[in-house]
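Recap from last week: sequence in, structure out.
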Amino acid sequence: FIDFIDSGIQTKWRGPEPFAGDQCYAPLPDSGFGKQYVKNLAFYRDGLQPWQRGLEIGMAHGYFIIGPFVSLGPLRNTPEAATVGLLCGCVLIGMISIGGL
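Predicted structure tokens:
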């Protein structure tokens, strides 16, 4: 048998149907912090043009490509680490783009 462990979390239901996903209250997404965090993402922020959204999202995700080369590459303790990381990231994107030919 499986023992029931009381975690102390209480779930509030908003309607008569408890199995509908839109009526369940979750603590993080329905809190003020969660709503404010999602509102500040570039995809949902008011007043941005589509190219500005794309630029901001692309720059944020670009650090995932360049970062490992800068911080974990063989030149990580040299002044040229950022430049070499940028070039390696560009080469990586180029190889991935050309690889589909």
